[in-house]
Amino acid sequence: MTDDELRQIANEVRKGVLTGVHAAKSGHPGGSLGAADIMTYLYFEEMNVNPADPRWADRDRFVLSKGHCAPGLYAVLAEKGFFAKEELATLRHIGSILQGHPNMNDTPGVDMSTGSLGQGISAAVGMALAARQWGQDYRTYALVGDGESEEGQVWEAAMFAGNQKLDNLCVVVDHNGLQIDGPVDEVNDPMPLADKFRAFKFHVIEVADGNDMAQLRAAFAEARATKGAPTAIIAETVKGKGVSFMENQVGWHGKAPNDEQFEQGMVELAANDAKEA
């Protein structure tokens, strides 16, 4: 796909995020909107997956370690065809296949149940190790938050992955600089992330604009070509990307838009459609 086509899909994903969180009257729009480009690139360009067979043994794996950004993952999965887009409006409703955090038992396309921060990357490391042990060619991708990187388990997993030289593992850090309690550098600053991953024997790629498809394309190509070490992509993103009043606003970490805000957001995203056209 071209970068323009991927941007158009990411814009539809953002509409899906707003639709779900507004319908649920709860959820996490900020991080979901900010990571929409990364997840769109993964599912529509980078990863080998089959919506008709979500449990296909040879598929690439994706673990949303920052599981609260489930609205973004669900919107991508719906765009890819794992389930009907109409399901997005059932987010967090009783009986829905789309709950507040990813559940691999209920949601087609979800490879790991996540939510407790720090644990998803450990599961991804296990998946990558299993592929090597079983002689399988699939790759594993994990999306980790910068605030999540304050968790010690992230670095235990990184230490193991680096020592095992798991070059079929790609960890993407969604570095938007904000977490639920405020700016990351004021809560419990985990910087410098790039140096930390290098210390744990990762190949590190720093992406200045993680919302830019061309930069993501180059980063994932470099990651795929890297042998003998796992890769960490540190991607600078804008929390709330695409909706002006949500961008870089920590208050939109875990708050649903009201009717007026939802309409304004959807109008802005529709305007983005016109720009892409």
Describe it for me?
It comes from Paratractidigestivibacter faecalis. Belongs to the transketolase family. The chain has about 280 residues and is α/β, with parallel strands linked by helices. It has one domain: Rossmann fold (3-Layer(aba) Sandwich). Helices cover about 45% and strands about 10% of the residues. The protein has ten helices and seven strands. The strands form two sheets. A five-stranded parallel β-sheet has the order 1-2-3-7-6, with helices on both faces. Helix 1 packs antiparallel against helix 10. The radius of gyration is 17 Å and the shape is globular. It starts with a helix and ends with a helix. The relative contact order is 0.16. The mean pLDDT is about 95.
User: Helical percent range?
Assistant: 40-55%
Strand content: 5-15%
CATH architecture assignment name: 3-Layer(aba) Sandwich
Rough outline: globular
| Helical stretch tally | 10
Domain unit count: 1
Low-pLDDT runs of 5+ residues are none
Largest sheet: 5 strands, parallel
What's the total count of β strands? 7
What are the SSEs and their pairings?
Elements: H1 3-24, H2 29-34, H3 36-46, E1 61-64, H4 70-80, H5 119-134, E2 140-145, H6 152-163, E3 169-175, E4 178-179, E5 182-183, H7 184-187, H8 193-199, E6 203-207, H9 213-225, E7 231-236, H10 259-276
Parallel strand pairs: 1-2, 2-3, 3-7, 6-7
Antiparallel strand pairs: 4-5
Helix pairs in contact: 1-3, 1-4, 1-10, 3-4, 3-9, 5-6
Summarize the structure.
By secondary structure, the protein is α/β, with parallel strands linked by helices. The protein has 10 helices and 7 strands. It has one domain (3-276): Rossmann fold.
